[in-house]
Amino acid sequence: MSDKIEVVQGISQRNRHDVAVELTKLYADNIMLSELEDIENAYAKFYALANILEQSNTNSLNEFLSEEILNKLNLK
To answer: 47 falls in which pLDDT band (50, 70, 90)?
Structure first.
């Protein structure tokens, strides 16, 4: 048995909960949300958005990117 451990670096995978939590934190900090109900509503909206985007074809989402970003990513 080998004592060698191979670590493969790649894009970190976030699930929709992770995305919703991160976006909610950013949004709450920017807008200064403090009421629990407002934070819950923001989380629910971001979770729903992440869920829809997760199920979407990535090529169909390109139309929402600016021309500049498309060119940088060589998607145009």
So the answer is: very high
DSSP string computed for 32-55: T---HHHHHHHHHHHHHHHHHHHH
Q: Report domain extents, the chain.
A: 16-72
d(CA 53, CA 24): 16
Looking from the CA of 5 toward its CB, the CA atoms found within 13 Å total 2
Q: Which amino acid is at 25?
A: K
Report the distance separating Cα 70 and Cα 65, nearest Å. 6
Q: Is pLDDT of 71 > 80?
A: yes
Tell me the residue type at 1. Answer: M
